[in-house]
Amino acid sequence: MKPTFTLQAALLTVLLFLLGQGARAQTYDAVVALDGSGAYRSVQAAINAAPTGRTAPFTIFIKNGKYREKITVPSNRPFLQFIGESVANTVLSWNDANTPSFPGNSSSFIINASDVSALNITFENTYGDAPQGLAMYITGDRVAFKNCRFLGGQDTMQLNSQAGNRSYFKECYIDGVVDFIFGAGRGLFENCIIYPRTRRDGGSGGYITAANTQPGQPYGFVFRNCIIPENRGTTTYTLGRPWQNDLGSTATDRSATKVVWLNTTMGNSIKPAGWQLWDAGTVTSVIQYAEYKSRDFSGNLVNISQRVPWSIQLADADTANYTRAAVLGSWNPCTVVPNFCGHQDPAIAVSNFWAVKGSATALSNLTWNSSWLIAGVQYQLFRSTARRGTYTPLYTTTSAVASNINFGTTDAIPAPGTSYYYYVRASKSGLATHVTDTLEISSTPTIFTTGTLQAFLQGGATPSAIQNLLVRAENLTAAVTVTPPAGYEVSANGGTTWFGSAAPLTLVPGSTGGVASTTLSVRLNAGSVGPYAGNLTLASAGAAAVSIPLAGQKQAAALPQSVVLQWWPMARSNQDSTAVRAAALQASTPTLRKFVVSNGSATATIPPYSRTYGQAFAPVADGAWTTALGGNGGNLNRTYYEQFTVGSNSSAVRLDSLVFNAYVTGSVSNTKLAVVWSRSGFATDSADVTGSKGPGGILLSSANGGFTTPIFTTNASSTYRLAFAGATGLTLAAGQRLTFRVYFSCGSTTVTTRFATLKNVQVKGEANVVSSTRGAAVQALQLYPNPATAQCLITHPAASREARIAVYSSLGQRVATVACVAGSQQTALNLNALVAGYYVVRYISEAGQFAVPLHKE
């Protein structure tokens, strides 16, 4: 039967046509399109091409597509306006997080300019529930959004503005799991969907806001006529907790947090208490947490009998203080574009489409939610056995009630060796259909490797240094065979057992067909001198083989040895260890400039020296860094440093690297670290370190410890290894000195308890090296590898019957003793009984005693 063509339908068709023609007639200053149909293929390219210093909007139209890029609007480009083709399909996406692998600002989109606006765009950070991974970071004033989505996990959005800077959100969708709207700025949210979604990481609780409103500011976050939908029921939330109002705060830096919810509709995902302290040090008298007529989805007032007693229920007259004009002052965001503050009918937009693979006894789970509350939307889940194959409907449901935004179903896992591909199609007559990205649940055997390998160098009979890869696998039906090329060996237990090309290593999968992440150690241990090249292969039945090229060289001469020559434990004082210091070096005590060690007070909480932190210091003795208190804040400064000196006595010394543990306690806000060295005491020369390794491996050249390319430290004590002058190092002749300075910065505004820490500072190299007047002498005691995990090999003078190896903790306690075999020059030391940390290994015999530090990882 043909459809009946009514006058109403004809008018609707004409109206839609005219609207479409009007949209096409709209002109923009720049157009971005992934397919090349615009002037730019990336959003950042359009921003970079925009003029600076504008006083009227510069419009950037972004066509549908997923733009995977990290984007920054610099402070000199105000009045940029971003307009998406559709909120569901114009997606600006990135996946940074606050981890050692991604130091610095983790946000996908950073706005440092003022008078910036965005319409019909999705901003997302796909890293996951934790750690911190921002979708939006704002420092500018007068920043406005309409009909936008912000998708993330922990800390989705930060309004990190200067005091009084303002942001406005109209009919937006914001989701997350922990503190997902946070910061010191002033934010007004009108008619927004605030979705505290079910956590995927197993956590049972979360917090919507974490404002740190600064003292004296009249407003923090204000939510007017917003909706907090219910999630799937396994994660409950509070409306907020007060960031920077905690045990580490003082009267001068404690946040006076302000968050107000007016006419909010909320479900049972909000805890009856409503709000939460940060910790036992929270001062509630300076906090303003308030609600006005919060209602449930039946329209009834929420039961507030269990709200925390220090929260506020506003009266009718109080609401006059929270109008748009009152909160935003002289700025009227309604003038950004016509009808910016008016109502716009919501679009269909599916969020959080997620597929979790089941097992042989449990079904896979496929879940999603609607971004806005729209009744009558049909959701169809489609499945195919090939990504570009034929998809058929697996599940269909319709949202009968607008407030029900959570949907999902289950499916059996695919057969071994196959995959299932899924997408969701959401549609309703009169609205644009949204089709999600395609997700895969795989039963195809797959081998994964992480890491890169540099060239190997073996000298004499000693194997090369070990390099590591991470290996994991899933959906296996057989073991993974790891075959190195000729001359190379691999180990999966930290070097206790080695396998070569004739007898490869096998990694046996568990009962679920997976191999958990395993560290694969690789070394060159060839018999003949010459080059060695080939592929390290990892293979399993039905899986695509992985081949990793290896290259290396064996030379006849032994390699130069790198041992610890001088060690500052920093556990009790800043004196270097006399037991470890090479005879060729002078005793040395570091000095601080514009830094002071912690005073150890109750306010500081951290002692000046300890086994936990090592040496703790800051510009102010109780841990403050702000420039107002005389600190250098978040920027490195050439006058804030700790200086160390390595001086040679009567023989030449080769220095190659510096090793230490460091971080800034309680902060990762611009916590930078750099090292610079000099031969003249910085009178006539200085040089940056040339490369480094951190907790995540080799650091990028953009953050490798040079003064202009500093390391961004993590939030835990981490080991850093920095090369002084490349692979060859540098040589100090008798009587010469090397001076190096360690610089720190911290951008936290907290006045106390932020301390730079240094622990186990070690200078490595080789003493008694060849000079113009004398030959080389063999080091008395050497460890390999160092750092070590399960076992290390100690090379020492030929042992007498009474010779033994003793291991001491950093505080001098003997923790292990091993007898040496008479006549031997090597002794194996099993480290499995030792906890991770630093030790002194001492060789004791009638001929004398020798000591060297050991790092157990």
Automatic annotation (TrEMBL):
Pfam families referenced in this protein's UniProt entry, alphabetically: Pectinesterase, Por_Secre_tail
Entries under InterPro entries matching the protein: Ig-like_fold, Pectin_lyas_fold, Pectin_lyase_fold/virulence, Pectinesterase_cat, Secre_tail
Domain Pectinesterase catalytic: 29-326
Signal peptide start-end: 1-25
Top-level taxonomic group: Bacteria
Domain (Secretion system C-terminal sorting): residue spans on this chain: 783-848
Keywords: Aspartyl esterase, Hydrolase, Signal
Keyword Secreted appears in the UniProt entry: no
Stated family: Belongs to the pectinesterase family.
PANTHER family in the record: ACYL-COA THIOESTER HYDROLASE YBHC-RELATED (PTHR31321), PECTINESTERASE 53-RELATED (PTHR31321:SF57)
The protein's name in its UniProt record: Pectinesterase family protein
Species assigned in the record: Hymenobacter monticola
Organism phylogeny: Bacteria, Pseudomonadati, Bacteroidota, Cytophagia, Cytophagales
